[in-house]
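Figure 3 (text version): structure tokens given as input.
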């Protein structure tokens, strides 16, 4: 029996290691995909169109908003980000788990539409560690780094609204924690009653 996939939100301040953790999760588990967001920001070194993001103009993005093409959208650091409604629904209907890498604003919008969404917030071990990571990756100017640190202090306040908190101090430990969350959700009673229906009928009846 085809069981509807689960929808996950993974949020984190910039520089916390969210992207690397999600990649590690996808490499180690099957039946799970990450949604590719639309964005108006410029492409960064090492990124590819339609692989990391769907890069669009601000006018194109706003037309999609009017057409209700997004489950959620937000303005972050001066750029728009949004999640395709039709793609997410198609994956879930086919039994595929979907990860949305979005911020707390987007998470709030999605929660209003998908009551069973599972929300995970990734935190740095310290603010000092976060600052070091932002500087080490060498992608941003000093002013941008300071702005991201200021934003991070505000963003982490919203972690209290999430279902799970993962501290990314040691990468492998944080990745193991994320995998454990996915596996635990697969073992929930309502999921097992559907996917293990034949076995349960045999054991119980």
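Below: residues designed for each position.
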């Amino acid at each position: 029996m085809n069981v509807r996939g689960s929808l996950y939100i993974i949020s984190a301040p910039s520089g916390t290691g969210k992207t690397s953790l999600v990649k590690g999760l996808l490499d180690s588990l099957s039946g799970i995909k990450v949604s590719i967001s639309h964005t108006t920001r410029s492409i960064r070194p090492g990124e590819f169109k339609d692989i990391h993001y769907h890069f669009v103009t601000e006018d194109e993005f706003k037309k999609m908003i009017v057409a209700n093409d997004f489950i959620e959208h937000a303005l972050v650091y001066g750029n728009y980000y949004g999640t395709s409604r039709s793609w997410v629904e198609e994956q879930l209907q086919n039994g595929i788990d979907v990860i949305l890498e979005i911020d707390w604003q987007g998470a709030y919008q999605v929660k209003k539409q998908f009551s069973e969404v599972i929300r995970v917030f990734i935190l740095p071990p310290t603010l000092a560690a976060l600052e070091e990571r932002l500087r080490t990756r060498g992608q941003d100017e000093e002013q941008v780094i300071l702005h991201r640190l200021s934003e991070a202090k505000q963003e982490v306040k919203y972690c209290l609204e999430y279902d799970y908190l993962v501290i990314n101090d040691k990468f492998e430990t944080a990745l193991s924690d994320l995998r454990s969350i996915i596996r635990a959700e697969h073992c929930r009673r309502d999921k097992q009653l559907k996917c293990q229906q034949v076995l349960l009928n045999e054991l119980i009846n």
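The domain at 7-35+97-204 is CATH 3.40.50.300 (Rossmann fold).
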